[in-house]
C-alpha cells in the first residue's frame, strides 16, 4: 500500500437491501454465498468497482461479504463453526475468481471481519486476548483460503482491535484496522481517534489504519495534528450526514449525493498524507465511489 492508489468497494449491505431488495437478517450478507444466485448477485455487486479502478488507473482491494461471519452472529443465523469456516473460504474464492477474470494488477482480496458486538454502539470494554481468541477462527479461515490480508471494519474500541491484530499475526496475515467515529470525531466509546490509533500501535501495530462508516464531516474533527495521521491509509465514508443512532432508526436509505460526498471527502485529503485506499460505506454504491475516483465523469 506504499503510495499505490487503491479502489475499494461501497456499502455492500445497504446496496443489497435497498437497491436489490435482498433481505439480510442480522445485516449479514454471507448467506448469499450458499447459492448460485446469491454468488452471482455478489459478483454483479463487485464488478463495477473493478471497472472504476480500471478507469482511474488504480489497483483494487475488495472485501469479502463476511462482516457478520463470526461465531456469535453466525449462531444467530443457525451456522455452526464448520459452516462458518466453509463460507469464509467460499467468500475468498469468489473474489479470487473475479480477480482471475479481471486482468487488473494489483488486485487484493481482503478477508473482512466486523466487531463481535454492534458496529454502531460501544459495549463493554473488550479484553484483547479474548478478542484474539474469538476472531481467530475467522482469521484462520481467511489464511487457509489464501486471502491477501484481513481488514477489520467498524470497530468501536481499542481492545478488540489489538486482539484482531494479534490473531492476524498468528495466522501470518497482514491486517488493517478500521475504526468508526461519531459526529464529534470520537469512537463510540468516547476515545479520540488519535488515542485509539496510538494505543493500538503501541500494543500490536497493524499494517495500517482506516476510518469507515462515518461521513467526512464527522471524520474531520478527529484529524488533529500529529504523526499518527500518517498511519491512516484508507477511508470508507458514509453517504449520509446522519448520526449512527439516526441511521439505526431510519426506515429509508439516505444515500446523499455523490458529488457532495466527493467535495466533503476532498477536504480530508490534505490532512492524510498516506491516504491511498478509498471507497464507501453505508448508503454508498458504485456511483459514489466512482465520483470519488473519477469526479469529471
TrEMBL record:
Zn(2+) binds at residues 213, 281-282. Gene3D superfamilies: Homocysteine-binding-like domain. Keywords: Metal-binding, Methyltransferase, Transferase, Zinc. Residues 1-296 form the Hcy-binding domain. The keyword Transferase applies. Its cofactor is Zn(2+). GO terms for biological process: methylation. GO terms for molecular function: metal ion binding; methyltransferase activity. This is Homocysteine S-methyltransferase. It comes from Virgisporangium ochraceum.
Amino acid at each position: 500500500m506504499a503510495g499505490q492508489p487503491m479502489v475499494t468497494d461501497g456499502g455492500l449491505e445497504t446496496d443489497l437491501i435497498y437497491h436489490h431488495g435482498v433481505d439480510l437478517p442480522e445485516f449479514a450478507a454471507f448467506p448469499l454465498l450458499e447459492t448460485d444466485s446469491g454468488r452471482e448477485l455478489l459478483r454483479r455487486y463487485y464488478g463495477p468497482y473493478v471497472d472504476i479502478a480500471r478507469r482511474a488507473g488504480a489497483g483494487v482491494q475488495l472485501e469479502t461479504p463476511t462482516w457478520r461471519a463470526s461465531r456469535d452472529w453466525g449462531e444467530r443465523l443457525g451456522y455452526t463453526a464448520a459452516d462458518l469456516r466453509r463460507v469464509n473460504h467460499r467468500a475468498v474464492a469468489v473474489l479470487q475468481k473475479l480477480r482471475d477474470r479481471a486482468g487488473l494488477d494489483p488486485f487484493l482480496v481482503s478477508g473482512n471481519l466486523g466487531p463481535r458486538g454492534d458496529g454502531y454502539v460501544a459495549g463493554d470494554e473488550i479484553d484483547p486476548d479474548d478478542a484474539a481468541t474469538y476472531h481467530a477462527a475467522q482469521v484462520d479461515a481467511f489464511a487457509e483460503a489464501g486471502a491477501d490480508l484481513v481488514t477489520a471494519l467498524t470497530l468501536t474500541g481499542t481492545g478488540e482491535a489489538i486482539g484482531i491484530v494479534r490473531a492476524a499475526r498468528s495466522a501470518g496475515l497482514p491486517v488493517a484496522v478500521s475504526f468508526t467515529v461519531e459526529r464529534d470525531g470520537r469512537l463510540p466509546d468516547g476515545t479520540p481517534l488519535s488515542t485509539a490509533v496510538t494505543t493500538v500501535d503501541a500494543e500490536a501495530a497493524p499494517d495500517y489504519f482506516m476510518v469507515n462508516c462515518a461521513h467526512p464531516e464527522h471524520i474531520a474533527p478527529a484529524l488533529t495534528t500529529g504523526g499518527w495521521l500518517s498511519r491512516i491509509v484508507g477511508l470508507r465514508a458514509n453517504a449520509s450526514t446522519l448520526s449512527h443512532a439516526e441511521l439505526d432508526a431510519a426506515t429509508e436509505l439516505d444515500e446523499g449525493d455523490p458529488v457532495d460526498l466527493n467535495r466533503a471527502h476532498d477536504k480530508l485529503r490534505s490532512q492524510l498524507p498516506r491516504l491511498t485506499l478509498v471507497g464507501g460505506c453505508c448508503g454508498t454504491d458504485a456511483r459514489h465511489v466512482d465520483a470519488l475516483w473519477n469526479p469529471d465523469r
